[in-house]
TrEMBL record:
Superkingdom as given in the UniProt entry: Bacteria
Species classification: Bacteria, Bacillati, Actinomycetota, Actinomycetes, Propionibacteriales
The keyword Transferase appears for this protein: yes
Organism: Nocardioides piscis
A Pfam family it matches: CofD
Presence of keyword Transferase: yes
One GO MF term: LPPG:FO 2-phospho-L-lactate transferase activity
Cited SUPFAM superfamilies: CofD-like (SSF142338)
Name of the protein: 2-phospho-L-lactate transferase
Matching InterPro entries: CofD (IPR002882), CofD-like_dom_sf (IPR038136), FbiA/CofD (IPR010115)
EC class: transferase
HAMAP family: CofD (MF_01257)
Keywords of the record: Magnesium, Transferase
EC annotation from Swiss-Prot or TrEMBL: 2.7.8.28
Length: 338
């Protein structure tokens, strides 16, 4: 296999990519060439304008992780970060104050915003930003593509007793970063998604791949939005490559993040089988040929198979790149038995 395409959110997707690249470099992935090329189609529905800056959290998490510039402990933002600009903005009383905009990170957003305002599409801006990071040995020749050049934003409707309608709609970042996903999400609104088009190279990366992987990213606000860009679901359904996913739900809840709340909001059962059914079998109009569940969820295997998706239960905790590489190898074995 020469061409692997991975759909990705932020931390879950980036952590999986580290393991995949580890496996490729180590030659431990069955049938995968040492010079295999990895293309990442990243979610951009988390994007937000803050203080006049365009912030792309998932693109940046992947970029900083693969470029070794990530704060590994937090899982997002730059390493050795300082927060002077954020503190100064707070002293001016400028809202919002809840988003973690570090000084080093701001440099990325300044470059991005300047280029966007000069007329470059997000895909070209991303390519330019990646030029700096792609010399890191850990980058592994990855091509990072935004799912779309169009503005798409996930918004969340929450109950608000003070609002005349009893409801308020907040940006997904406000729901997650400020409200910690602690208030029930009543509805999700994917602003701009239905009118968006896939970014340059995205459909080709899926159509021409030898393997497509859906990593353990959030099934609703990461993978759900990528697949929701008109054209991407059809590309996943029609590619000659097998499509294999790994469950972000382990033991009937998320490992980290807020997938539980998001799945509940769209009435999908919060389990490894529930997510597999939600994605659906390719043979039946869905996007999956195979689905890995954690060993704790072995009792869900039969239900996933009954939905028409090949399934196996293996350890799915991404504790380090070597362990994650084993997950990637198992995923490949599931859809490309040797
Ligand atoms: P985000 O954009 O930063 O929220 O990251 P993603 O959407 O890419 O991934 C978030 C998902 O990754 C969550 O639903 C987590 O449950 C899942 N996740 C995080 N760590 C692990 C892990 O070690 N194993 C598995 N199976 N899932 C994980
Ligand atoms: Ca995200």
């Amino acid at each position: 296999m020469q061409k692997i395409t991975v759909l990705s959110g932020g931390v879950g997707g980036a952590t999986f990519l580290q393991g995949l690249l580890h496996g490729i470099a180590a030659g431990s992935l069955p049938g995968v060439a040492a010079e295999a090329e990895v293309t990442v189609v990243a979610n951009t529905a988390d994007d937000i304008w803050l203080h006049g800056l365009k912030v792309c959290p998932d693109l940046d998490t992947v970029m900083y992780t693969l470029g070794e510039g990530i704060d590994a402990e937090r899982g997002w933002g730059r390493s050795e970060e300082t927060w002077s600009a954020k503190e100064e903005l707070e002293r001016y009383g400028v809202e919002p104050t809840w988003f973690g905009l570090g000084d080093r990170d701001i440099a990325t957003h300044l470059v991005r915003t300047q280029m966007l305002e000069a007329g470059y599409p997000l895909s070209e801006v991303t390519q330019a930003l990646c030029r700096r990071w792609s010399s890191a040995p850990s980058w592994g020749g990855v091509t990072l593509l935004p799912m779309s050049d169009d503005r798409v934003e996930t918004h969340v409707a929450i109950a608000d007793a003070q609002a005349p309608s009893g409801k308020r709609v907040v940006h997904f970042q406000e729901y997650w970063v400020r409200l910690h996903a602690e208030v029930p999400a009543e509805a999700l609104v994917f602003v701009g998604l239905a009118e968006s088009t896939p970014g340059p190279g995205v459909l080709a990366a899926i159509a021409e791949a030898d393997l497509v992987i859906v990593p353990p990213s959030n099934p609703v606000v990461s993978i759900g939005t990528i697949v929701g860009v008109p054209g991407i679901r059809d590309a996943l359904r029609s590619t000659a490559a097998p499509v294999v996913g790994l469950s972000p739900i382990v033991g009937d809840t998320h490992v980290r993040g807020m997938a539980h709340q998001m799945l509940t909001c769209i009435d999908v059962e919060v389990s490894a089988a529930g997510v597999a059914r939600h994605y659906g079998a390719r043979a039946q109009g869905g996007i999956l040929d195979g689905w890995l569940v954690d060993e704790r969820d072995a009792h869900h295997v039969a239900a996933v198979e009954a939905a028409g998706v090949a399934c196996a239960a293996v350890p799915l905790m991404m504790v380090d790149p070597a362990a994650t590489a084993v997950m990637a190898a198992e995923a490949i074995r599931l859809v490309r038995p040797s």
